[in-house]
Every structure is written in structure tokens, then in C-alpha cells.
Design a protein that fits this description.
The complex is a heterodimer of chains A (204) and B (251).
Chain A (H helix, E strand, L loop, with lengths): L1 E5 L7 H9 L3 E5 L2 H6 L2 E4 L5 H10 L3 H9 L4 E4 L1 H4 L4 E2 L13 E5 L10 E6 L18 E6 L1 E5 L5 E6 L3 E8 L2 E4 L7 H13 L2
Parallel strand pairs in A: 1-2, 1-3, 3-4, 4-12, 5-6
Antiparallel strand pairs in A: 6-9, 7-8, 10-11, 11-12
Chain B lengths: L4 E9 L2 E3 L13 H11 L4 E5 L4 H17 L4 E4 L5 H9 L4 E4 L1 H5 L2 H10 L4 E10 L2 E6 L4 E6 H11 L3 E6 L11 H8 L6 E4 L5 H9 L5 E4 L1 H4 L5 H10 L7
Parallel strand pairs in B: 1-3, 1-11, 3-4, 4-5, 5-6, 6-9, 9-10, 10-11
Antiparallel strand pairs in B: 1-2, 6-7, 7-8
The chains are: A alpha/beta (204), B alpha/beta (251).
């Protein structure tokens, strides 16, 4: 199985690629429309600033391509910033809108919560929704690696596949039909992370 | 709940681990990938690789090494040592490191912190501070602890956080190598000053040292090097001990 990893100059695609390879699929690092069409699944990784990411996607004319592929029901996984980009807006954004594939916004951890920002390190998955293919076999309290200052707030709560508690309970995994998103880094979450990537490869 | 992190640190010279690593059964104790895998198996939460040669010629070796590590272990790791340019940071992150650690260059050119944070996000910018007690305050030292700067560590930590650092790696030069425990006062001073995670470093020698730095100094993570290299304690032992004493760790 060929899985496209969208290469738009926003950080760490190497680890994602290696993890996919380890899980038995063939990663294709690309920003070409033709390859995104021919691959069976798509991963949008991303580390960095929201506006910069949107700008890069715009430059590469990838936004309509991503929307079309998602609409065609191709399994799609957004990781960290790659997940946040699926929403309509972000508090981090100064001038750019998100892709609007999922309704809602991305917001910053409030200083009032009394927690350090960024949320950095290993935290528990909670409220894992039964029947979510991406999280198949992952048990509650499993720990995954987080490294972020912003988190998604979906309008439709049914898309929340797991949450995490960091002063506030936030959605850390999302699933809506063929669209999946995670705020944590499965590619950095050792055995549990690899299990989630394997689920995406095999079950989603 | 967020777990407290245990972080082994590896010194790298020309692509090899230095400091006599004494892991039993390890075929090549100088190979960073083998050592990283061993720490991975022990349950380390993150790794820090410090390039102690840090020459320009060495940069390419380092990036190749980062790529090799990222291909073999699926855990977060930080790379530091002589990083002075945005291009260095990009290359290291693209090769698969989660974070970069800035030290001397950040003191000399604090705008490196802000430009890195703006480009890549605060979450991947670690500012490493080498601190030494000087009477009433702690002084920042640079160039591997050789050069005093006159800068107050508390002031610098706060400034680094304001410029966009996502984490402070705080090494006590007074405690480093003593095995007498982390510098609780120093660590506490910084954790109460900044609202970003603080990694305590320098002085770990026994199990209680980890408990104390987490509970008394409120560190978010504890780093150690020789303790692990010489096999005095394993990451697993420390975590089991902390868990028994009610500290949240990832087991």
C-alpha cells in the first residue's frame, strides 16, 4: 500500500515516513497532485506556525487537492499542526484561515489553567471511543507524546475519538468518516504510537 | 496527567557516543543508535544528544546521524551543540529530531531564539543554561562552561522564555559530576520564575535525587548522563521507584 506524506516544508516528515515503512506500507513523500491522487492514503504532518503552513500549502496549490481527496473518501491522517490545519480557524493565525474540513477552531492553552505551556511530554489518552479504527486496541490511560501550545475545539463533539487532560480536557484524537487527526505524535510515541500508525495503515 | 520525564543524555563526538558507556551485551557502545535503542528499551521518555565537537565539517555527520537515529527509534529526542543558524535548526528538525537545544549562540544572539520559535514553533526550541553559584546569584556560563557572562540565570531564563523558548535545560555546574543530587535551590528558582517546562540536570547519583528534584524543585524532567552510562541505575529502576512514591511516570 502506498501512503502519501505531504511534503510542504513544515518539519519532521522523516520519522513519519519511517514509522509508516515499519508498519508495512510504502511511504511516498510528495507535494505532487498526481501522487496524492494515486496513493491510497494521505498523511499531513506538520510542525511550526499555522500561517506559515497555510502559506506553504497555498504556494504548492495543495489546498484544493487535499479537499478533493478528502471528499473522495480517501483515508486522511493529520498529525499535530497537520490536524489543526483541518479546522476553520486558529488563534495562532494572524492572517490565514484553515482548510475548514472540520468545523471548529484551534485555541491556545490559557495561562489561567495554571499549566505550563507548551504541553510537553507523555500524557494519557482518555475517553477513547469504542469502534474507532485508528485507536483500535489502544486502552485507556495509554500514554502518548505531546508537544504543542494549541489544541482543537471541534464544534461537532461526535468527531472526538479520544481526549486528554491538561488543566482542561481537550480533543486529542479525531475521527470523522475517512478523516482522522491526532494532536500527539504517534511517530514519537514508541510502541503505542506505532500501533496507531499500524491501525491507520491496516484498518482505516 | 502529564508524566514526569526521565531523560538520558549522550555526548556525541564525530558521530560516536563518548564517555565509557558500559551497557552489558551491547555490541558497539559507541554507536548512538545502539545506545538509543537500549535507553528506549529501558523506558526513557526522551533522549538528548549533545554534539561536543560541533565543527562545521561535523554538521553533515550530525545531520546524517540524526536521520539514522530517527529511522530506528520512535521516541522524541533533542539535539544540541554549537547550533548557530536557522539552517542548522531546520536540517536537524527535518532529519527527525523533535527539538534543538541552543546554548552559547542564544546568549550571544538572543534573536536566534525568537527567529527559531517563529519559524518552527516554541515547542522545538530548548534553551540550555549552564549555571554556577556566585555569592547571591547564579551566573550563566557559555562555551561549555568555560566562559562566565555576568548574566543572572534567573534573568536569562525569563528572557529566553519571553523570546519564545519552549523549554529550559538547566545544568548546575556546581552539582554536575558530584552525584550528590540535583541543585534543588537553583531548579526551584527557575521553575517558579518561568511558565515553560524545566529539565533539571547535573548531580543525579541516587534514586531519591529524582524524587527530590520533582517534588521539591518542581522540575518537569530530570536529565542524567554518567549515572546511566555507567549502569549505576537504569531508567526503569528510577521510574519504578518514583511510581511507588506516587510520582506520575510513564511505565
Amino acid at each position: 500500500m502506498k501512503i502519501a506524506i505531504i511534503d510542504y516544508g513544515m518539519g519532521n516528515i522523516h520519522s513519519v515516513s519511517k514509522a509508516i515503512e515499519l508498519c508495512g506500507a510504502k511511504p511516498i513523500i510528495t507535494n505532487k497532485k498526481s501522487q496524492l491522487s494515486s496513493c491510497e492514503k494521505i498523511v499531513l504532518p506538520g510542525v511550526g506556525a499555522f500561517d506559515d503552513a497555510v502559506t506553504e500549502l497555498e504556494k504548492l496549490k495543495l489546498i484544493p487537492v487535499i479537499k478533493e481527496q478528502v471528499k473522495n473518501k480517501k483515508p486522511f491522517l493529520g498529525i499535530c499542526l497537520g490536524m489543526q490545519l483541518l479546522f476553520e480557524t486558529s488563534q495562532e493565525a494572524k492572517s490565514k484561515a484553515g482548510l475548514g474540513i472540520l468545523k471548529g477552531q484551534v485555541i491556545k492553552f490559557s495561562a489561567k489553567l495554571g499549566q505550563k505551556v507548551p504541553h510537553m511530554g507523555w500524557n494519557n489518552l482518555e475517553d477513547i471511543s469504542a469502534g474507532c479504527s485508528l485507536l483500535n486496541g489502544i486502552t485507556a490511560r495509554a500514554q502518548v507524546y505531546f508537544c504543542h501550545s494549541y489544541y482543537p475545539e471541534p464544534v461537532d463533539k461526535d468527531v472526538v475519538a479520544a481526549s486528554c487532560n491538561y488543566g482542561v480536557k481537550f480533543a486529542c484524537a479525531l475521527a470523522k468518516e475517512n478523516i482522522y487527526g491526532v494532536q500527539f505524535h504517534p511517530e514519537k510515541s514508541q510502541a503505542i504510537g506505532l500501533k496507531i500508525i499500524r491501525n491507520f495503515v491496516e484498518l482505516c | 496527567m502529564l508524566s514526569k520525564r526521565i531523560i538520558p543524555c549522550l555526548d556525541i563526538k564525530a558521530g560516536r557516543v563518548v564517555k565509557g558507556v558500559k551497557f552489558l551485551g551491547l555490541r558497539d557502545a559507541g554507536d548512538p543508535v545502539s545506545v538509543a535503542k537500549e535507553y528506549d528499551a529501558q523506558g526513557a521518555d526522551e533522549l538528548v544528544f549533545l554534539d561536543i565537537t560541533a565543527s562545521i565539517e561535523n554538521r553533515k555527520t550530525l545531520v546524517a546521524l540524526v536521520e539514522k537515529i530517527a529511522s530506528n527509534i520512535f521516541m522524541p529526542f533533542t539535539v544540541g551543540g554549537g547550533i548557530s543558524e536557522i539552517d542548522d535548526i531546520r536540517n536537524i528538525l527535518n532529519a527527525g529530531a523533535e527539538k534543538v537545544s541552543l546554548n552559547t549562540q542564544a546568549v550571544k544572539f538572543p534573536e536566534l531564539i525568537s527567529s527559531a520559535a517563529k519559524r518552527f514553533g516554541s515547542q522545538c526550541v530548548v534553551v540550555a543554561i549552564d549555571a554556577k553559584r556566585q555569592g547571591e546569584f547564579w551566573e550563566v556560563f557559555i562555551n561549555g562552561g568555560r566562559t562566565p557572562t555576568g548574566i543572572d540565570v534567573e534573568v536569562w531564563a525569563e528572557k529566553a522564555a519571553r523570546l519564545g523558548a519552549g523549554e529550559i535545560l538547566l545544568t548546575s555546574m556546581d552539582c554536575d559530576g558530584t552525584n550528590d543530587g540535583y541543585d534543588i535551590k537553583l531548579t526551584k528558582a527557575i521553575t517558579s520564575k518561568v511558565n515553560i517546562p524545566v529539565i533539571a540536570s547535573g548531580g543525579a547519583g541516587k534514586l531519591e535525587d529524582f524524587y527530590n528534584v520533582f517534588m521539591q524543585a518542581e522540575a518537569d524532567a530530570a536529565l542524567a548522563a554518567s549515572l546511566f552510562h555507567y549502569g549505576k541505575l537504569s531508567v526503569k529502576q528510577i521510574k519504578e521507584y518514583l511510581n511507588q512514591r506516587g510520582v506520575m511516570v510513564r511505565l
